[in-house]
Amino acid sequence: MYAQVIVDVPTMQTNRPYTYRVPAAMKEILQRGMRVVVPFGKGNRLVQGFVVAIKENAEQVEKLKEVIQVVEIEPVLNEELLQLGAWLADYNFAFQISVLQTMLPNVMRAKYGKVLRVLEPEKLRDWPQVALMFADRKEVPFDNDNVDHELLPQLLKLQKQNVIEIGYLVKNRAKVKMVNVLKSIKDMSFYQEQLQKLRSSAVKQARLLSFLMHAPSKFVPVKDVIKRYNLDYAVINQAETKGWLVQDQMESYRIPKLQTPVQPSQPLELNAEQQKAYDAITANIVEPEKRTFLLEGVTGSGKTEVYLQAIAKALSIGKTALMLVPEITLTPQMVRRVKSRFGDDVAVMHSGLSDGERYDEWRRIQRQEVHVVVGARSAVFAPLINIGLIIIDEEHETSYKQDDNPRYHARDVAQWRSDYHNATLLLGSATPSLESRARAQKGVYQLLTLTQRATRGALPTTEIVDMREAIKYNNDDVLSPQLLTSMQERLARQEQIVLMLNRRGYANFIICRDCGYTPRCVNCDVALTVHKDVGRLVCHYCGYSETIPRQCKICGSKRIRQFGTGTQKVVEHLNEILPEARVLRMDVDTTRKKGSVDKLLTAFGDHKADILLGTQMIAKGLDFPNVTLVGILNADTTLTLPDFRASERTFQLLTQVSGRAGRADKPGNVILQTFNPEHYAIQLAKDQDYEAFYRQEMSLRHAWRYTPYYFTVQIKFAHEQVNEAAKIAFETTNWLKNIVDKETIMLGPAPSTISRIKNKYYYRVVIKYRYDQNLMQALTELMHKGQQLQRQGVTLMIDREPTNFM
Ligand SMILES: Nc1ncnc2c1ncn2[C@@H]1O[C@H](COP(=O)(O)OP(=O)(O)OP(=O)(O)O)[C@@H](O)[C@H]1O
Ligand SMILES: [Zn+2]
Ligand SMILES: [Zn+2]
Fold this sequence. Notes:
Blueprint lengths: L1 E6 L10 E4 L13 E6 L4 E11 L13 E2 L8 H13 L4 H7 L8 E8 L9 H7 L4 E3 L10 H9 L3 E8 L6 E7 L3 H10 L5 H12 L5 E2 H8 L3 H9 L3 E7 L20 H15 L5 E6 L5 H14 L3 E5 L5 H13 L3 E4 L5 H12 L5 E4 L11 E7 L16 H12 L2 E6 L4 H9 L3 E5 L10 E6 H8 L6 H12 L3 E5 L9 E3 L16 E3 L4 E3 L6 E3 L12 E3 L4 H11 L5 E4 L9 H10 L5 E4 L12 E6 L13 H13 L10 E6 L5 H7 L3 H15 L6 E9 L2 H16 L7 E13 L2 E10 L3 H19 L3 E6 L6
Parallel strand pairs: 12-17, 12-18, 13-15, 13-16, 14-15, 16-17, 19-29, 20-27, 20-28, 26-27, 28-29
Antiparallel strand pairs: 1-2, 1-4, 3-4, 3-5, 6-7, 6-8, 9-10, 9-11, 21-25, 22-23, 23-24, 30-32, 30-33, 31-32
The structure holds adenosine-5'-triphosphate and zinc ion (2 copies).
């Protein structure tokens, strides 16, 4: 019997599995989807791998090595996930090993180590220093930190003489948490008898006996018993020797906790629009026709309530449900809402969990102990079986696209899995991505709309403040007089305020403070990016560049410069102007610690602060009834992203954050500060008019030939030497130009923003295409050249439908 294994060797990036012999002892247990340890390469270094196939025959069997060890006795990847992995690697020009690893909790990634092993102990006598290091041990850990560098030459010599050898280890970091448990084993009368025999001073034993008398006949954690009855370990151990109880060890799950307990909730009565959406979705859950739904509902329209009731429907017919939410902010509030409905039947997966929690939640899913999973991007790989419904909330969010290898989009994975399970896929947003909305237009998705707020309240009214004027008035480019007055009103009324400082794209662009002008590329219509090192503005798509202007091209003003205030500065500013207001700050710095988002939001919900100031992470999902004013300090930063989706991002962000105001009975207002008050994305966000935005943006995308009319791929090259990076980028582009379809458009190569990340220079090519099989083949070929390029010091990245052009 032979196993085909995808090995974990970063430098051997290949999608070809290696064949290993299966030793007799493993024949019964080895299965597809298991992790194994195998020797690899000339040195027979031990590496971890995934068994992707098992065969009865193989070629050149005499040369084959043997599987050394199985990591666990059950497969970690089931049939579905193995198939998904193969497809995903192909589709995203990624390597299978990185895809397979991405599907599992981080701790399941093997850690490698080395050891020094003594082969002939008696020969060490002549080497006292080395002997001292071993100190009678057969094996010592060997890494660069723990071995004295002066000893290295001696060790090398001994290795050559075969006195010692270097051994390789594969360490399993995934640890199961065990707790001590106890169980009563006798009947009531036995314990009563014991109780009568006790001396009156033996109070602890008496307390234990009274517990044992009524204890359920199952194992309970020793710690709980000790705490509850005020006992100690000595008493428990003594009782065990007396035969009163038995002790054992049991696995205990580390279940992620929220700041405050979750209160159970009941389904709300749906309004007519919600009901209509619910009926369409659940009909498909019960009798699936492989439908994808796009639920387009204004902010506060009660999309979440529809999700929850649809999940309940899936559960009621014995299916499971998977719900994806964007990373960070949304997670605690959303997790709370889902848990309040489905209690312990919910597993949670997001980056805020500890490794142990993540691993345990994963195992609860794997063991089919839960039926609902809520989580961020990577939860899309949750090993649920029998899925009836997959929901992607805020489906337009860029965090669903992984920016690292493998560069997958959770939406694509969800689509694949829903096809596999014949499950319903539900995409929801107040501002759907143009791709999804266009698919609904074509009838690929079924469009469902919620046009009213669920609480019957109106959408907030928005006032656009022209900062070009405001700045003339008081020279304060943080708070306009209009925003300040509105804030004072709310503070007087004890209402709350959300302020957003948009840091997306920040500091990489220039803007004229007098007319709002930002230089854009003449070929690509995207904002030019500041490259300080060369003193130029550069287009990230085609490489067009011009010098950084000192004067505005449009109005001649000299106040054309980079933008820049941080949240900390704004807090200081607020404290100065509005000393009575209590401010909470939410940004990457204040949310780094585990549970901090939940804590901050709980405090704000309890009105322990008047103002919540945050970056774009506060834009989504927040549902606070007392918030009646939203202030957007700088609407423009997203508009100047070097990205053809800049307007879309701006519209989405502004609409989302505006939607935080006036969600309950009190009406809401939004004040939107901008240097570009006439821009259509800003004008349409004012009225939260998604449909109008969609139409206008589609016509521009058509004119400039961007998504969804064209697909895009980005190729990036990195090298320590700028010339080398440019050279390989140009060579590859020229090679591709001869292969691709004539309708395909190649932009670039162009240098990236932060052209030097980790001491490397980056060059990129952006390709726009409609249907180009040649291009796809060429990219696959290019990916397989990656290994060879790596040897030349070139890092290659192929990114399908990129969302990051920084
Ligand atoms: N049928 C209903 N009857 C009464 N209240 C409802 C109903 N549905 C939802 N709500 C309430 O309306 C508010 C907004 O709902 P929800 O948060 O689900 O909207 P949403 O569309 O998901 O919002 P957003 O996209 O802005 O985050 C919530 O407080 C929710 O409890
Ligand atoms: Zn100007
Ligand atoms: Zn350009």
